[in-house]
Every structure is written in structure tokens, then in C-alpha cells.
Amino acid sequence: MNIAIFASGGGSNADTIIQHFKHIKNISVRLVVTNNPKAGVLRVADFHQVPFEIITKSMLYDSSDVLSLMKQYEIDFIALAGFLWWVPDNILNEYQGSIVNIHPSLLPKYGGKGMYGHHIHEAVHRSKDTYTGLTIHHVTEEYDAGQIIVQVKCPVYASDTPQDIGRRVLAFEHAVYPRTIQFLIEDRNP
């Protein structure tokens, strides 16, 4: 089983996913896709010797180029890891049930377009929430609205800054996301 990771930023989740699957028989990260030619995830892919592709909006939305890439690399499963563009219907239809996202809040709270990364942690901080967490969910045509697979809570302390909250949530993401992906793939392909 071959995984593609779609990411737009630093790539820390991509790094933990790639590392995790280096030790799992019959499952591997075959491709990293980004829309950001300056994304840190490119250094992660290069370090782990995983092929990467930089895509444009036109490739994603005006053609079947990205879907063709998925076929070229024989991709069976897509994991979004900080990918900031909406995924079009042709990819959603082809990978129905095999495309997931991780979101740094307990959805539906702090979900939707424009709610990502530091924006979420700042909203949690402003709201004085006593806990936050992460949600792994199936990807649908609507931002952050797919069926929830798993949610994990973590505490928010009164002395926390938004950066503290972000670091804590990210540590939970690194612990949970690779194992959840593995479970989903193995559950579909026993």
C-alpha cells in the first residue's frame, strides 16, 4: 500500500508519518505533494529520499494532472498534513474513504475555511478553553466536515500562550496520526 502526503508547511507531521512507515511491512510513503515551493516539507521529503511534486492551482483544479500523479506513483491512500487547499471532487471520488486529514482542534469547534495552525490556537487561547486537541477525519467536499475517525483531547493551562497550545497539540498529532493511518489501511486490507 502506497501513501501520498499532501502538505503546505513545515512538514513535521509528514516527517513522523514517513519515519513510522519505514518500519511497517507492506505500507510505505511513496510521494509528498505540496503547493508551496518553499515548504519545509520538501526538505523532509528530500532527507527521507521520498519523491515530491510541487503542484499549482491549475494542476489541481483545472486538469486531472494531480490525479494522474497519484496513478503514476500507484497511490492507494492520501494523508493531508497541513495541506491548505481544498481537495477537488475528482480526487475525492477516486479516493473515497482513503483520504484523511488531521485538524488541530476538536471539530466541529474551530473548523472551516481559514481555520488552521496558529489561527486555531489563538482562538482557543482567546476563548479561555480548558482543553483542546486534534481531530482526524475523512475528507469531503466541505472543509473539516467529514466523518470523524478519532479525537484526542489535551489540556490548556491558564498560563499557556497560543504557541504553548500549538506545541502541545502537535506532540499529540505526532503520536496519533501515523498509527491512525496504519490502522485505517490495515483495516481496509487485512
Chain-wise SSE layout:
Blueprint: E1 2-6, H1 12-21, E2 28-34, H2 41-47, E3 52-54, H3 57-61, H4 65-72, E4 77-80, H5 89-94, E5 99-103, H6 117-127, E6 131-138, E7 148-155, H7 162-188
Parallel strand pairs: 1-2, 1-4, 2-3, 4-5
Antiparallel strand pairs: 5-6, 6-7
Helix pairs in contact: 1-7, 6-7
Structural features, described:
Helices cover 39% and strands 21% of the residues. It has 190 residues and is an alpha/beta fold. It has one domain (2-188): Rossmann fold. It has a seven-stranded mixed sheet with strand order 3-2-1-4-5-6-7, with helices on one face. It is globular.
What descriptive keywords fit this protein?
single chain; 190 residues; alpha/beta; Rossmann fold; seven-stranded mixed beta sheet; 7 helices; 39% helix; globular
Concise overview:
With 190 residues, the chain is α/β, with parallel strands linked by helices. It contains seven helices and seven strands, in the order βαβαβααβαβαββα.
General shape: globular
Total number of helical segments? 7
Report the top-level CATH class.
Alpha Beta
Number of domains: 1
